[in-house]
Design a protein that fits this description.
This protein is α/β, with parallel strands linked by helices and about 325 residues long. The chain is built from ten helices and 14 strands.
């Protein structure tokens, strides 16, 4: 039997593939642009989760599915793609898994849908669509709703909610890695103070495997460390790299206005991702509500210290040529 990893060419997906192969599992990857460098023996199918025929073919002979595929960026020009890939793509994967009688499916959601407005009713309330701060979060929320409905129909579907994954190997520079890169390069002279929940991508991958092994259907598991202030993360980055980090804090209303202007400019004029997507800015004012999900510790996965994760991330960014400034602690 085979484990299928959709989005196996992405940041989290690659680490899930590596973790599975280390356990001796047979792995198949379905990815729109899988790339190269997979462990020996990994089967590659090039295609999209929005193509039912390709998804059905990828499901043949599959025992477990790790549905990692999705658009992870907080901004894209065509907002309809969020719904097409993140929401309807998940529905297509669920339907194909049910038809193929797949034993278990782990769905990769996001911790972003567990962050609530300050005026929210109570930290233990279930998420609501109207609470979502942007189209990315709405698409991931609806994907979770589809997974919960499938679990109620009897499918063994478990949800994992990674927060901000960091670590080596982020070839596409997802938002958390891009944030670290920009701070190191001096491209972000100021910041908005907010609680940040970071997690090592290798721990996220192990969380996926444990969710498949012991996770309960219809449950979501929070994959993240307890939040710490962003200023604390910047202090750790300075310790790791020796680089000077920004100290100027931007008031939230100023950041919100700047985000709105930059996103409108990106949507209508440049077509290039804004430095501070509006969804990202809005999330800085939303406290995390981890009580809505089972913590990673419930899956029996120990978490690496944040300082180790930052050290590995910075070293990888330097080795891959993403950092323009000298890093005194790494030279």
């Amino acid at each position: 039997m085979t484990d299928l990893v959709t989005g196996g060419g992405g940041f989290i997906g690659r680490h899930v593939v590596d973790a599975l192969t280390r356990e001796g599992r047979r792995v198949r990857v379905l990815d729109l642009a899988p790339g190269s460098g997979f462990p020996e023996g990994v089967e590659i199918i090039t295609g999209s989760v929005t193509d039912p025929a390709v998804v059905r073919r990828a499901m043949a002979g599959v025992e477990r599915v790790f549905h990692v595929a999705g658009i992870a960026s907080l901004w894209i020009r065509n907002k309809a793609d969020y719904d097409a890939v993140n929401h309807h793509g998940t529905e297509i994967v669920l339907q194909a898994a049910a038809a193929a009688d797949v034993e278990r499916l782990v769905h990769t959601s996001t911790g972003a849908i567990l962050f609530y407005p300050l005026h929210h009713r109570a930290p233990t309330d279930l998420p609501r669509l109207q609470d979502m701060p942007g189209p990315y979060c709405r698409s991931k929320f609806l994907a979770e709703e589809a997974c919960m409905a499938a679990a109620r129909r009897g499918q063994h579907v478990v949800i994992v909610n990674p927060t901000l994954p960091l670590g080596p190997g982020d070839r596409s520079c997802t938002p958390p890695t891009r944030m670290i890169r920009d701070f190191l390069n001096g491209d972000t002279p100021a910041f908005v103070e907010f609680p940040v929940s970071l997690v090592d991508v290798r721990d996220v991958a192990l969380g996926h495997l444990q969710a498949a092994a012991v996770g309960r259907p219809g449950r979501r598991y929070f994959l993240g460390n307890p939040p710490v202030p962003l200023s604390r993360v910047l202090a750790l980055l300075a310790d790791v790299s020796g680089a000077t980090m920004p100290r100027v804090k931007v008031p939230y209303p100023v950041a919100l206005a700047a985000g709105a202007v930059s996103e409108l400019t990106a949507d209508l004029i440049t077509g290039k991702a804004p430095k501070a997507p509006l969804t990202g800015v809005r999330l800085t004012r939303r406290p995390v509500a981890p009580l809505l999900a089972r913590p990673l510790s419930e899956l029996g996965v120990p978490l690496r210290p944040i300082s180790d994760t930052l050290t590995n991330t910075v070293a990888w960014l330097v080795a891959e040529g993403h950092i323009r400034r000298s890093m005194p602690r790494l030279s």
